[in-house]
Amino acid sequence: MTPNTTDKIILGVDPGTSVMGYGLIHIKGNKMELIAMGVLRLEKIENHPLKLQKIFEKIISLIDQYKPDEFAIEAPFFGKNVQSMLKLGRAQGVAIAGALSRNIPIQEYSPKKIKQSITGNGNASKEQVSAMLKSLLNFKETPEFLDATDGLAAAVCHHFQKKPGTAAKSYTGWKAFLADNPTKKI
Fold it and tell me: Which residues are catalytically annotated?
């Protein structure tokens, strides 16, 4: 039996147009360690394109600083407010574009999949997800915004999905993504 020699960094993102959460974990063998988590606050910026620019710049900055090997992002859920969904989709797209611009493989997960992966319950609250992450990664302080632990949850979910014997699809460029997702609108 060969020892597990996995050594990688995963960046997880919870996209948002008011607050974007992110978290980074380091996987070394069978150990998972918290590197960093935080939020990008955008609520004071009124111009939507400027918010998108800040999201892109933050993703690039995180990638340049931490050199992640993989990128996981929460997919927008379906809501009743079409304008909110459009803005959230743009935020997600800009974050994905940042990762793709640095050739980082991306994977998106539904909120339900992330919650299920972390807590065993796809309907878990943000507080329950945060509490489970504290236990898994041994950190004490609850962040001011649970968007930070939501971003972290995307990274941890991705790690759990990529364990041996599971197959998750990732993409290294727009062309590959669009070839597998012809119904996605850009």
Answer: 14, 74, 147
**Rounded Cα gap, residues 182 and 20, in angstroms:** 27
Predicted confidence pLDDT, tens digits, the chain (186 residues):
445 568 999 999 999 999 999 999 999 998 999 999 999 999 999 999 999 999 999 999 999 999 999 999 999 776 678 888 889 999 999 999 999 999 999 999 999 999 999 999 999 999 999 999 999 999 988 888 899 999 999 999 999 997 654 444 555 565 665 666 565 544
CATH fit for domain 7-180, picks 1.50.10.20, 2.40.30.10, 3.30.420.10, 3.40.50.2000:
3.30.420.10
pTM given for the model:
0.84
Distance from CA of residue 178 to its chain's centroid? 20
Are the beta carbons of 51 and 95 closer than 8 angstroms? Answer: no
Amino acid at 136: L
